[in-house]
Amino acid sequence: MSSTPAPSAAGKGLGLYAILAIVAIVLDQWIKYAVESGLPFQEKIDLLPFLALFRTYNTGIAFSMLSSFGDTGLIVISLVVSAFIVYLALRSTPRQIFARLGFALILGGAMGNVIDRAIYGHVVDYILFHTPHWSFAVFNLADVFISVGAFLVVVEEFIGWRYEVRSRDD
């Protein structure tokens, strides 16, 4: 039987992860500033046969979902989810390195997109994967941080699950 540590005890050592979240926000915003000031709007600039820069705006969340909520609604949703991520991070243990990295990246990405909504009224997207007959949704570095962060949290859960299974078998 495992007990969940109290947030004050478990949350120790989160300073480096907070710095990672801040670096993610700064990097995301710096790139978006460069995109806004130097990349033409909705003109594809091929970098590789499958990768292009393509500045566009997203008024919703992933794949423009929930755009009917408006900027304020999406900011509130993002802040509530971010608060939940901070809660989970505070409850994590120093052993849960992948989860903590994941929470930091998710938080940094979410805050990067919240800043866009607050300043521009939309999220600035600029990365496009494509083929001659298909293209993926346009996204940004903050979205990458969120996706990689979620993957790391899942990896941590899998590692924890495997550890528990092995402990029970012994």
Characterization of this structure:
- With 170 residues, the chain is α+β, with helices and mostly antiparallel strands.
- Helices cover 61% and strands 14% of the residues.
- Strands 1-2-3-4 form a 4-stranded antiparallel β-sheet.
- α3 (70-91) runs antiparallel to α4.
- The chain is globular.
- It starts with 6 loop residues before the first helix and ends with a helix.
Question: Characteristics of this structure?
Answer:
170 residues; alpha+beta; four-stranded antiparallel sheet; 4 strands; 14% strand
- Strand order within the widest beta sheet: 1-2-3-4
**How far is it from the N-terminal to the C-terminal residue, by CA?**
14 Å
Write down the secondary-structure element order. Answer: HHEEHHEEH
What's the shape?
Answer: globular
Strand tally is: 4
Report the mean per-residue pLDDT as an integer.
Answer: 88
Structural class: alpha+beta
Largest sheet: 4 strands, antiparallel
Report the total helices: 5
Task: Produce the secondary structure layout.
Elements: H1 7-10, H2 15-38, E1 45-48, E2 51-58, H3 70-91, H4 97-120, E3 123-131, E4 134-135, H5 141-169
Antiparallel strand pairs: 1-2, 2-3, 3-4
Helix pairs in contact: 2-4, 3-4, 4-5
What's a quick, concise take on this entry?
With 170 residues, this protein is an alpha+beta fold. It is built from five helices and four strands; from the N terminus they run ααββααββα.
